[in-house]
Amino acid sequence: MLRSTARALLRAFAVAVVCKSLVAAPVTVDIEANVSLIVDHSGLLGGAISVGDIVTGSYTYESSIPDSNPLSTVGDYWHSDASHGIQLQAGPFQFLTDPTAVNFIVEIANDHGSPTSSDNYLLRSYSNVANPPLPSGAIVEHISWQLDDFSQTAVYTTALPTLPPHLPAWTSSFGLDIRGKLPGTSQTFLIRAEVESAVLRLPQECVTVEAPDNDPTGGLRVVQLGDVKVTAGFCDLSLVDFFGDGRLGVSIPCSESATSPPATIHTDSVCPKLPTRVDVRILTDIAELRAFGSDGLLKDTATAAPIYHEQILTVESTDGIERIEVLGSQMVLYAVCWSCADDPNDPNDPNGQDFRRADPNADGVVDMADGINLLGFLFLGNEAPSCMDAADTDGNGELDMSDAVAIFSYLFVGGKPPAAPGPMQCGPNAGQSKLGCKEYSLCE
């Protein structure tokens, strides 16, 4: 077995440590949900959203935010920066954290409560807006999502996770809720949706483990993941579906020998130059990464937290990373991501400013003023947007009237959403057509 029963028991007693895998970094999770309940007796939503509609969106939090809850069984992580919060598209409306007054919490509970204890995963945004505004004049009071696990096995720490919740491990008693009211009255509305997918957004180039055309027999000495090559050390590698959810990983079963590490990740072919940052998504509690440059010298290391779960370990070097030795045992490798030198997706590159698409006036909210702002620049000689990529609604690398039309179409007639990173969350320009982004203060 990949992990002994003793190891599984020990993980319940593991404590979170501050390690390089938990460096300050935003975590963005893309979600999709199905509307299961609408309570709107006063018609505040105007019938625009119905049971069965699809809700899409994302939430973003900072992995380095400190825990403000003194209880050992609850971690509260409050956010007030404009780049954090939740953004949802339901019918013709965006429901999102107000970027000018962010009051957003991620709460993680581990074996909390008495006499019945449970694990809990909670998001809640207390200051929100609708875009366009609801025609009834109603306001959005709360946006929340809660998951519960009464078996107390979904989490083993109150630390803020760097990965999305594994949905099969949780139950959803309350769902994804959007609640609002008409000010000065008792009229309220509720939209409840059941989240069906929660996927970590990876803005960099990434490779994952794909099913082979033919099931391999015996052990593997080399596993090719796109341009990334994984080579075996003392023991053979194999492909496994560890969680039984259809996701394949590369099993690395043995610890290092005196002459070689259990596995080596070769990244010398992923960039025109060597990558300056590599993120490794791996199931482990004892892994250590050692990154080496083309000169053979050790450039950086990263160590896993001592809790057996999927983690993202990061190594960085401005000199470039040619290979990464993976030390440890009983590990499963799921993905390798990287940022290239002089790449706008590289978080160390000053030219790679994050932004929100279709927001040329850079106020954090996509509305009619953005289309007007862009037309003023194109035809009246007004000042150029500080972030040209944000104004490039369709992401084709050209600014013209079609970008302004796309904004109005998206806002008022249900047109195609703006290109990635989209209008509701901060992110880099992951496409090939880049106009540049000198400044977008809400995402700094």
% residues in beta strands: 35-45%
User: What is the first-to-last residue Cα distance?
Assistant: 45 Å
| Order of helix and strand elements from N to C terminus | HEEEEEEEEEEEEEEEEEEEEEEEHHH
Mean pLDDT: 85
- Give the % helix: under 10%
Beta strand count = 23
Cα-atom radius of gyration: 23 Å
Low-confidence stretches: 1-24, 343-351
Structural description of this entry:
Strand 10 (171-181) and strand 11 form a beta hairpin. 8% of the residues lie in helices and 37% in strands. It has three domains: 17-200; 205-340, Jelly Rolls (Sandwich), CATH 2.60.120; 368-443, no CATH class. With 444 residues, the chain is mainly beta. The protein has four helices and 23 strands. It is globular, with a radius of gyration of 23 Å. The chain has an eleven-stranded antiparallel β-sheet with strand order 3-6-7-9-10-11-1-2-4-5-8, with no helix packed on it. Strands 12, 15, 16, 18, 21 and 23 form a six-stranded antiparallel β-sheet that branches. The chain has helices at residues 5-10, 368-379, 388-391, 401-412; strands at 26-39, 54-62, 74-79, 85-90, 93-97, 104-112, 118-125, 128-131, 139-149, 171-181, 188-200, 205-208, 222-225, 228-232, 238-240, 249-252, 263-266, 275-284, 288-292, 298-303, 309-316, 323-327, 331-340.
